[in-house]
Amino acid sequence: MTKRPEEIINTLPPLRRRQVLAGMAGAAAIGLLPRGAFAQDGNVLRIRANSNPSSLDPATGGAGSDHVFLYNFYDTLVDWEPETLAPKPGLAASWDFTDPTTLVLKLQEGVTFHDGSPFNAEAVKFNLDRNRTAQLSNIKKDLANVSEVQATDELTVTLTLSAPDTALPLILSDRAGMMVSPQALNNDPEANVDRAPVGTGPWTFTGWTDNEKVSGERFADHWREGIPGVDGIVLNVIPEAATGLRAIQSGQVDLAYQLDERQQQLVDKMPNLTLVAGPTLYIYQVYLNSARGPLQDVRVRRAMSLAIDRDAYVQVTQAGVGEPAYMNLPKAHWAWSEEAAAVTTFDVDAAKKLMEEAGFADGIELDMRGYPDQGSVQRQEFLLAQWAKIGVKGRFTNAPISEASGRFFGDEKVGDLLMSAWTGRPDPSLTYALMYGQTSYYNPGRVAPPEGYDAALQKSRESNDQAERAAALSTVQKLAMEAALCIPLSIRYEVDATTDRVQNFKANLLGKPKFRDVTLG
């Protein structure tokens, strides 16, 4: 029988009850935020964002939380359906695989960038070549199968592939398909627009005050009719979920996304708020630098995974709103694998035995990294309590998302592990390529995945048949979980809140909201 959260809390001494319940009590526990802190202009959508961006250049950013900012200033070549993530036209009006290694894109007519320069095939070629070859690009892995890009005519782009890749259309709905104005980059692929984004998106950029807000105003020449639905947008950076909830409850923002799961019942009971909720691809997980110290031994990594009671994790840290994660996908996903899930179990005795076999019966101490918000701290304390049972000790050094992630994944390689999340990608093969590929940004140790991994991943991209893709991905996922290059913990469910003014907002399976259709009543 599933234990109630308060029963589980009593079995985990390091966890403090006041932290476990803080998300549900936060709205009553915090004072009213100053009214002057947020824009109050008429047709401006005011949003609570949960983190500061790492970059507003889609090629250089390193945080999955950036997408919610990027979508406002950039359109993508391919779009997706919110409920299913099925691909649909974006800046590319259509696309076609003329043979297994040739993808032809037909572009929308009459599209311009915010700086007035034309969006055409040459602009697409520039962006795709920059994304796949520029030294500054963090997304080379996304386009690894693209060997050549040609501007066939003004509105036609031909991609020649080194291997078949049926995932490519959805890959072009992510960072790799966000189009930056070549003119804004002075036609230099090694230049960046980290703090001055220029795309074709619904809003033009007006400002970014670090750790405070990012703003934009309507792009009057946007190619989609009736888009955007509001004249301006302001994303206010409020990392603490309790503060974010208080901001929307008091009317200081119109919309708050990715609130704490423990706040769902509270939002649902507030008469002035509308709850928008649903499953996502967002996975809470621990990234491991498998090139450092004891973590080089797969037995240590496996032991740390086996020591975690994921059912208890969901109950304690998410108030039961979510599900245990046994791989990097949720159970509802078409590529879920029972075989892979069987690898990720809860077995403290087996974990202790692995630590002994690895020569660490007396335990190890690790340099742990994470984020300072209250929810993250609680998740950290849960993990410390679980790992203490097998002799894994340490302390978390916390910093804001963009800083902690940049230092862990970037050139500094600071820390043995990072308690963070995988925010999901539209196609599952991209998730596994980015997380475990040897040269991937999100593989901090740059260690090679297990033998057979790359071949199975490529096989998953050679067919349009979902059953065939799922079978290949099952092998990929099983190998990844056996190698324990990271430790998935749980699936996050979307918990958003809107005021009565907000219309036409809905959550999506990716868990990264788009605001272009939102209007204010």
TrEMBL record:
GO cellular component, one term: ATP-binding cassette (ABC) transporter complex
InterPro entries in the cross-refs: Peptide/Ni-bd, SBP_5, SBP_5_dom, TAT_signal
Major localization listed first in the record, in broad terms: periplasm
Single annotated GO MF: peptide transmembrane transporter activity
An individual GO BP term: peptide transport
Domain of life of the source: Bacteria
UniProt-annotated location(s): Periplasm
Domain Solute-binding protein family: 87-439
PANTHER family on file: PERIPLASMIC BINDING COMPONENT OF ABC TRANSPORTER
Family the entry assigns: Belongs to the bacterial solute-binding protein 5 family.
Protein name (record): ABC transporter substrate-binding protein
Organism expressing this protein natively: Primorskyibacter flagellatus
